[in-house]
Amino acid sequence: MLLLLLLLLGPQPSGAHPGLKMAVSSKGLDYVRNVVTDCVQEELLTAVIPDIEGKVCIGIGNVHYALSQMEVVKVDLPQPSVNFEENVGVRVEVSGLSIAITGHWRTWFGIIKDGGTFELALFDVSSASLLQLGMDSQAHVSVGCLTCNAQIGRIDMRFHGGASFFLQTFVKLFPGYLKGLIEGHICPLLETQTGKLEDMLATMNVNLHIDPNMIFNLSLTNAPLVQSSNMEMDLKGVFYSEQHPSEPPFPSQDFQLVPKADYMISLGISQFSLNTYTYVCLTAGLLQINITDKMIPPVFPLRLNTSSFGKLIPQLAKMFPDMLMVLQVFAAEAPAVSLQMDSFSFLMSTAINAYAINNTILIPLFTLNLTTQFSGNLSIANEKVVGTLEFDKLKLSLVSSKIGTFQTLALEKVMVQGVKTFLIPALNAKLQRGIPLPVMKGVAFVQPVLQIQQGFLAVFSDVKMRDSSTEREL
C-alpha cells in the first residue's frame, strides 16, 4: 500500500533547502487504501497457494499430511484502517477478513494412506502492523515493519473422502493445528513484502526525463515527516542538463508550504526550482537564435540590412552600403523567475551581436545588451505548469561597436516591437510546453488548483489511478 506514496522518493541527499515539497493528507491515504483494498481482493482470488506438507501427532504417532491444488474461491475483505502514526510511519489494521479455499488432501500413517478433497474457511482474520518510514544512508526512503501481530478468529475445515480409522482423530486435531500454522506465517509474510518494497525503493531512478536535454531530480533531501494528519516530504526539485549535469550557481531558499487537508496532495514548487529550469535552458543552448531578414514579417518597419539600419545608425550605411545583416541573439545569463503573492515576473538579459554579410563572410558591427522584463500568468494543463508572458519594459544599451558610438533610443523603440514580434512568441512557445508536475506513472491529478505564493507555486489536487480498463477516482 505504501508503494503508491513512496515511489516518488529516492536517492541523492542535499544539505540545501528543498526545491520541492509535497504533503499527502489523510484523504490521500484513504484513497490509496481504497484502491489497494480492491486490488488485494482481486489478487487473493487468483493467488497461487503452494502445497503444504507436515505432520500432526494424534497420540499414537504422527500422521503425515499434504494439502495440494488449493484455490481461493471467495474473499471478503472489509476496508482496513490505515492511519498516519506521528513521527513513525503508517499503522495498518485489518479485521473481519474471511477466505474460503478448496483443495486436495492426502494423509499417510505408516503403510495406511488416505485422501480426498477439502473445504477450508478462515473467519475473522485480523492483523495490526506499524510500518516505520525513514531515510537510509544513501538518502533513499526506508520502510520497515516495526511491529506486527495477527490472529484468526475461527477456522472451519471439512474433509471429503477417506475412511481410515485414524481420520476422525486427525480431523479433530488438524484445524487447530492449521490455525496456529497460518497465524504464524502472516507477520513473516508481511515482513517479506515490506523488504521487497524497500529493495524496490533502493534501486529506483528518481531522475524524471523531461526531454533529450533535461532531467528533473525528485530525490529526498531528508527523511519524511509523518504527522497525525499527513506525511510531508522534501525533495531536491532541481533540473539538470542530461548531457552535462552540474549544480546551479545560485542557492536555494526555504519556503513554507501549508498543506490543505481537503486535498489529497499539496505540492510546493519553489522559485529556485523554476530558475534551475531556465539555467539548464541557458547551458543547453536553448535560448539562442540567429535572426535573418527572411524571418522578419513584411510589415515590420525595420529590415535586416545596412540601408534600413542606416536610418537609425547613419555611419552604418556609409561604411557597409547595401548589405544584408544577421543578428545573433542569445541569453547573456539565465533568465530569472520571481514569484510574489499572486504575481509572476520574468527578467531576461539578452546579448545581440550584429553582423553585415559580405558574400559568405560575417563582418562584426556592434554588440547590444537587451534587458527585458515580463509579467505573466501560470496555470496547469496536462499535468504541467504552463504559462504566458506579456511585455513590461525594455532597456537597450551599447556594449561595443566596430563602427563607432551611436545612440540607442530610436533602436530601443524598434526593439520593443521586435521583442513583441519575436521574443515573446518564442518564450511563450517554450512555456506552453510546460514543466511537468512530479507524479509517478499511472497517477493523474484531478482538478488541480494552482496558487502563486511568496517564493513558490502551490498546487493542491486530488489524484486518481490510471488503469488500462478502468479509472478509479475519488
Automatic annotation (TrEMBL):
Pfam families: LBP_BPI_CETP, LBP_BPI_CETP_C. It is found in: Secreted. Keywords: Antibiotic, Antimicrobial, Disulfide bond, Glycoprotein, Immunity, Innate immunity, Secreted, Signal. GO terms for cellular component: extracellular space. One of its GO terms (biological process) is innate immune response. Its main location: secreted. Coiled coil: none annotated. Residues 1-16 form the signal peptide. Residues 259-461 form the Lipid-binding serum glycoprotein C-terminal domain. The keyword Glycoprotein applies. Residues 23-244 form the Lipid-binding serum glycoprotein N-terminal domain. Gene3D superfamilies: Bactericidal permeability-increasing protein, domain 1, Bactericidal permeability-increasing protein, domain 2. Belongs to the BPI/LBP/Plunc superfamily. BPI/LBP family. Monomer. Homodimer; disulfide-linked. PANTHER family: BACTERICIDAL PERMEABILITY-INCREASING BPI PROTEIN-RELATED (PTHR10504), BACTERICIDAL PERMEABILITY-INCREASING PROTEIN (PTHR10504:SF132). The N- and C-terminal barrels adopt an identical fold despite having only 13% of conserved residues. This is Bactericidal permeability-increasing protein. It comes from Coilia grayii.
